[in-house]
Write a structure and sequence with these properties.
The structure is a single chain. This protein is of the alpha+beta class. It folds into 3 domains: 100 residues, Rossmann fold, CATH 3.40.50.20; 70 residues, ATP-grasp fold, A domain (Dna Ligase, domain 1), CATH 3.30.1490.20; 236 residues, ATP-grasp fold, B domain (D-amino Acid Aminotransferase, Chain A, domain 1, 2-Layer Sandwich). 33% of the residues lie in helices and 27% in strands. The protein contains 15 helices and 24 strands. It has a 5-stranded parallel beta sheet. The chain has a 4-stranded antiparallel beta sheet with strand order 10-9-14-15, with helices on both faces. α4 packs antiparallel against α5, α5 packs across α6 and α12 runs antiparallel to α13. The longest helix has 17 residues. It is globular.
Length: 448
């Protein structure tokens, strides 16, 4: 087992990893920018190192500073959390070159699964269902036009280096393809420095359902069932739940087997997520694989008895074999992402000082957060400040518990998405489990 782990991240995920390290008897090192000096992850780590000023590219994304922090503290492993450098193949390789274990995917795995076109080709070879689409990258607009006719409209143009919905365009008829092609490429070039595009059949009434997997150094993998992440705004997840209200036992078995096949086909090591689109007829298609821990991992932990995904991730990186059995939910869990945003003003970011903070509690309520009364939310990073997770015997009970927890949750000084989530829990379609990735297009937020 590792003696000391440096957490190359910030906020609630850094604090989450520090807690597991402490329980395992492993020393932890926090890194922080000057904007995060007062964050709880800095306070609770065994050691802390400032790695630069607030801009991410001068701190949390600056590999040389993070490696230097690991070396001066004698850390023998680095946990990247999610975001920032978690899926950066170069960072994984540099850690290896410096004799530091990267608790995550290898350079080869990240390259294989990080590029969307490459990932789809890999999954096709492994026999995992994929969305009908182009044979790799589209070299020109005429090729795109021919491919669209072959697939059949509607189609979806996607940037191969994409993420967060950037470089994506739905095209419903041939005369719209040229404009979509040009605007998607421009957006992808500006966001990722790469305007390469591929094309897929547009799945109608889709649900976004992902399967949590974990693999070990022997090439063995298992799954921990599904999470439904369909409630999204601009391709950003707002709330997640497990089990999915759309799932059947037969579909769960099929998707679980496909996810394990995907992981074992690349001898995947560590925690990862295989993401699928599921159509209205419950046909599922591989979308992408995230080679890291997910924001929403706590809901899986809550419904799988005595399973700490961060602990298992660390154990896998240390070479400890997994049990190799698949796990299924025994309860129902829902997560609401609490962001410092004003939902009544188009979810505008709301950084600033928290003047009052009262956390909800009680049976079946979990709060993962790094903020507190007096904490100043910096404007430099993602606006998520907390994850509120509830667990109950049934979905109906979980929704009732979430309503109660949201009513108890008080944050003043900044605007948050708590009012949005409270209204969501009363929405008839959400309560009925009748939602797709298009749900937010029709959701109307009532004035305060």
């Amino acid at each position: 087992m590792f003696k000391k782990i440096l957490i190359a991240n910030r906020g609630e995920i850094a604090l989450r990893i520090i807690r597991t390290c402490r329980e395992m008897g492993v020393k932890s090192v926090a890194v922080y920018s000057t904007a995060d000096e007062e964050s709880l992850h800095v306070r609770f780590a065994d050691e802390a190192v400032c790695i630069g000023p607030p801009p991410s590219n001068e701190s949390y994304l600056k590999i040389s500073n993070i490696i230097a922090a690991a070396e001066i503290t004698n850390a023998d492993a680095v946990h990247p959390g999610y975001g920032f450098l978690a899926e950066n193949a170069r960072f994984s390789k540099i850690c290896e070159e410096h004799g530091i274990k990267f608790i995550g995917a290898t350079e080869e795995m990240i390259n294989l699964m990080g590029d969307k076109a490459s990932a789809i080709a890999t999954m096709k070879k492994a026999g995992v269902p994929t969305i009908p689409g182009s044979n790799g990258i589209l070299s020109s607009l005429p090729i795109a036009e021919k491919t669209a006719i072959k697939i059949g409209y509607p189609v979806m143009l996607k940037a191969t280096a994409g993420g967060g919905g950037k470089g994506m365009r739905a095209v419903w008829k041939p005369e719209d393809l040229q404009n979509a092609w040009e605007s998607a490429r421009q957006e992808a070039k500006a966001a990722f420095g790469n305007d390469a595009m591929y094309m897929e059949k547009l799945i109608e009434e889709p649900r976004h359902i992902e399967i949590q997997i974990i693999g070990d150094s022997t090439g063995k993998a298992c799954h921990l069932s599904e999470r439904d992440c369909s409630v999204q705004r601009r391709h950003q997840k707002l709330t997640e739940e497990t089990p999915s209200p759309f799932m059947t036992k037969a579909l769960r078995e099929k998707m679980g087997k496909a996810a394990v096949k995907a992981a074992e086909s690349i001898k995947y090591e560590g925690a990862g997520t295989v993401e699928f689109l599921v159509d209205k007829n419950r046909k599922f298609y591989f979308m992408e694989m995230n080679t890291r821990i997910q924001v929403e991992h706590p809901i899986t932990e809550q419904v799988i008895a005595n399973f700490d995904l961060i602990r298992e991730q660390i154990k896998a990186a240390a070479g400890i074999p997994i049990l190799g059995i698949n796990y299924y939910p025994s309860q129902h869990a829902i997560e609401c992402r609490i962001n410092a945003e004003d939902p009544f003003k188009d979810f505008r970011p709301s950084p600033g000082k928290i003047t009052i903070f009262h956390a909800p509690g009680g049976h079946g309520v979990r709060l993962d957060t790094h903020v507190y009364a007096g904490y100043t939310i910096p404007p430099n990073y993602d606006s998520m400040i907390a994850k509120l997770i509830v667990t109950a015997q049934t979905r109906e009970e979980a929704i009732s518990k979430m309503k109660r927890a949201l009513d108890e949750f008080v944050i003043e000084g900044v605007k948050t998405t708590i009012p949005f989530h409270r209204q969501l829990m009363d929405d008839p379609d959400y309560v009925a489990g009748n939602y797709t990735t298009k749900f937010m297009e029709d959701f109307v937020l009532q004035p305060e």
